């Protein structure tokens, strides 16, 4: 019996599979989009004077930040915009970190004692919170990332 050989040129298919693999597993662009969504939402928290559910919780809500005498006639937590302007993100391969490098950001977000001899009570004004609509938008972006790879 005579043998025969079939050769299939699948270079185009291999290139497409490699592109799909790279797009699906290169999640840094996706996490960059997530970082922008979260930063935009956090900036909005400053603009409206808070959108949180409880101090210490990362879930957004409809509570507003507590006013103090020092915050009258201006937006709460916005004096020279240093804290607001410090909100940034860094995308990794499997996550995104969003935060502030300002030393007093945590005390304002969570509240606590500050000042000389810890004599000043700072009310918690959670600004690092995620709204339900942010989570929905992130899920939609995940779908887009996957579909865009196909």
Spatial order of the strands in the main sheet? Answer: 1-2
What is the H/E string?
A: HHHEEHEEH
**Radius of gyration, CA atoms, in whole angstroms:** 24 Å
So what's the overall shape? elongated
- How far apart the termini lie comes to 44 Å
How many strands, which pairing sense, and closed or not: the largest β-sheet?
A: 2 strands, antiparallel
Our count of domains comes out at 1
Task: Please give the share of residues in helix.
Answer: 40-55%
Extract low-pLDDT stretches: none
How many beta-strand elements?
Answer: 4
Category from helices, strands and their pairing: mainly alpha
By DSSP (H or I, 4+ residues per run), the number of helices equals 5
The averaged pLDDT comes out at: 85
Percent strand equals: 5-15%
Question: Could you outline the blueprint of secondary structure elements for this entry?
Answer:
Elements: H1 11-25, H2 28-48, H3 82-85, E1 88-91, E2 96-99, H4 105-110, E3 112-114, E4 120-122, H5 132-149
Antiparallel strand pairs: 1-2, 3-4
Structure description:
It is built from five helices and four strands. It is mainly α and 150 residues long. The chain has one domain. The strands form two sheets. A two-stranded antiparallel sheet has the order 1-2. Helix 1 runs antiparallel to helix 5 and helix 2 runs antiparallel to helix 5. The two termini are 44 Å apart. The mean pLDDT is 85.
List keywords for this structure.
elongated; two-stranded antiparallel ribbon; 150 residues; single chain
């Amino acid at each position: 019996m005579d043998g025969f050989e079939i050769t299939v040129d699948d270079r185009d298919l291999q290139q497409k599979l490699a592109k799909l693999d790279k797009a699906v597993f290169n999640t840094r662009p996706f996490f960059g989009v997530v970082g922008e969504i979260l930063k935009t939402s956090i900036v909005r928290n400053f603009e409206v004077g808070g959108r949180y559910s409880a101090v210490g919780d990362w879930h957004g809500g409809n509570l507003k930040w507590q006013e103090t005498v020092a915050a009258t006639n201006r937006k709460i937590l916005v004096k020279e915009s240093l804290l607001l302007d410090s909100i940034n993100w860094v995308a990794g391969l499997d996550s995104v970190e969003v935060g502030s490098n300002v030393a007093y950001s945590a005390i304002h977000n969570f509240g606590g004692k500050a000042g000389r001899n810890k004599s000043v009570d700072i009310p918690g004004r959670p600004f690092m919170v995620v709204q339900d609509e942010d989570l929905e938008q992130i899920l939609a972006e995940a779908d887009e990332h996957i579909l865009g790879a196909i």
